[in-house]
C-alpha cells in the first residue's frame, strides 16, 4: 500500500469516526461547544493529521501516533477508584487547591480543592458551559481551528476539561493544582478542553501534572485557552511525567491585556512523544510574557516545543528560555516564532534554546523565526546544540570528582537556569530532585502512588 | 615521591615532550622554567591526567604507583593537585557545592567521615582568610565572572582545601599584580610541610622570589636542558632564554 493511500486512510478513519459519534458528542453537551464542532471538523478535514509537510510540524511526524486503534472516551466514565483516596501528592510543603482530571474529564468527586476565595470557580467545563454559558463567551476564540489540525480535532471532540474563573483583583494564595490521569482498560484517545478566565488585577498560580496510571498506550490531545485581564498575573507550571507509550499533544493559548504578566514553565521529564504548542498574544501595553521549558529525554523519546509570541501592542516584553538534555537516540525540536506586528514599537523580545546532546545518536532541531514589522524593537534569538564541555569536565575531575558525578553536576547546572525560575519553592525543590534523579538515570516519579509502571 | 623517567608525550601526533627525567622528593620545591612552547604546561597537564596528551613512552611513578594508569580523579584523591593556567568557568555549578563535593570525595577516599554542610562551611571560612578570598566569590558559580587574579587565588584556595601532597602550579603568576602574587605565594608557603612537594611551572623568575625553589629546571624544546639550584632562576632572568637557545644550538 502506498504511503499516500495510508495517509488518506488515516484521515478517513477519523472522518468516519466523527460521523459515527456525532450524536454521542452533542449528547449532554452545551450549545456553545456543539456550535463549534462542524466547522472545526471541516477545518480538520482540510488540514488532516499533521505530517512533516506541514511547516509547523516539520520535525514531528504524527501519522504513526494517530494510526493505532484507540478507544475514544467521548462520554464521562465512572472511575472505580476514588482519586481523592488513591492519590496523595507527596511533595512536602506543597499546599494547593487540588483537583483531578481523569482521561480528560474533570473528576466529579473532587474533594481536595478546599476553600477557594470568594467568586473563584474551578469546575468542569461541560458543567459551566451548560449552567453558566455567559462565562464562556470567548470559548474557541483563541484556539483557531483553521490554523492547527490538532486544535480543530480537539474542538470537534471537546466535551470536558477544567474551567477556572478568577474574579477581578482576587489573589489566590495557594497554587491551583490540576492532576491529569490517563487510565483506561485499553489503548485510549483522550480529548481535554480547558478554559481559564483571569480578570483584571487577579493573581493566580497553576500547577499541571500529567501522569499515566497503567501501561496502555495513550494519545492525549488537549487545548487550553487562557485570558488574562489588565494587570493580572499568572504563573503556569506544567510537569509532564508520563510513560513512554504516551503521545501528549498540548496546545496552550494565552491572551494578555495591558500590564499583565504571565510565566509558563514546562518540564518534560518523561513521555513517549510530546508536542507542546504555546501561543501568546500580547494585546496590551506593558504586558510581559516569560516562557521557560526544559526536557530530559532518552531512548526513543521525542519532545517538540513550538512557541509563538505575538507582540500586538507597543512596550511589551517577552523572554523565552528552552533547554533540553537528550540521551540515547532521543530526538528533540524547538521552533520559536516571535511576531512583532506593525506599530508594536519598543518591543523587547528575547529567545534562547540550548541543547545538550549526551550521545552521537541523539538529535536536535532548532528553528528560531522572527517576523518584525515595527522598526523600534529589540529582539534577539540564540540557539546552541552541544555536548558536555570537556575542559570543564576535566577541571572537576582534577579536583577528585569522578567522571559520572562531574557530568551530573554539569547537567544539573545546565538545567538549573530553568529550574530556578520556579517561584513556588516546594515545587522547585521537588523538580530539582526529580531532575537530579532523572539525570542519574534513576526513575524519577512525581508521586508514590500504587500504580507506578515500569516504562 | 615522584619519578619521571624518559617521558615522551605527543599531542595530535606532534611530539611535545622528548625524554623528560625528573625526581621530586617530599618537602622540595621544583621550578620548571622555559620559554613559551617548550612543553611546560604539557608536563603539568600530563601529571594531572589530561587525556588528549598521549604518552608514547617513558613512565611516571608517584608514591610507588604507575601514575599513568590512574584516572584524573584518582590522581587528585591520591594527592596530586594542578593549579590551572586557565581555570575553567562552569556556569550553574555553585562554588560551594563544587568545593564541598571535592573535599568530601577526598575524605571518602581516605576513609574519613564526609563533612556536613555546616562543618564544611566552617572549614571553608578559615581557608578563605588564608587566601584573602572574598566570601562573595564562593557564592557564585565556579570561576564565573571572576577576574584573572581571583581565578588564580581561587586555585590556591582549592589547594588549601584539598591539601595535596604534590601541588603543580601551572603559570600561577600570569595575570597577577604584585599584591595578588604575594597573597598567592603566601598561601602556597603556608601550605608547605616536610611531607608535601610543589612543582612551580613558570615563564618568569618573579614568582620564585616569593616561592623559593630548591631546584630549578630549564625546559627547552621538550627536554630538561639545565638543572641547578635557585641561582639558575636569577641567571635566566639576567641572560634571558636566548642564552639557553644558543647553548642548545639554535
TrEMBL record, chain A:
Residues 12-178 form the SUF system FeS cluster assembly SufBD N-terminal domain. Residues 183-414 form the SUF system FeS cluster assembly SufBD core domain. Belongs to the iron-sulfur cluster assembly SufBD family. InterPro entries: Fe-S_cluster_assembly_SufBD, SUF_FeS_clus_asmbl_SufBD_core, SUF_FeS_clus_asmbl_SufBD_sf, SUF_FeS_clus_asmbl_SufD, SufBD_N. GO terms for biological process: iron-sulfur cluster assembly. It comes from the Bacteria. This is Fe-S cluster assembly protein SufD. PANTHER family: PROTEIN ABCI7, CHLOROPLASTIC.
From TrEMBL, chain B:
Keywords: ATP-binding, Nucleotide-binding. SUPFAM superfamilies: P-loop containing nucleoside triphosphate hydrolases (SSF52540). InterPro entries: AAA+_ATPase, ABC_transporter-like_ATP-bd, FeS-cluster_ATPase_SufC, P-loop_NTPase. This is Fe-S cluster assembly ATP-binding protein. It comes from Tangfeifania diversioriginum. Transmembrane segments: none annotated. Belongs to the ABC transporter superfamily. Ycf16 family. CDD domains: ABC_FeS_Assembly.
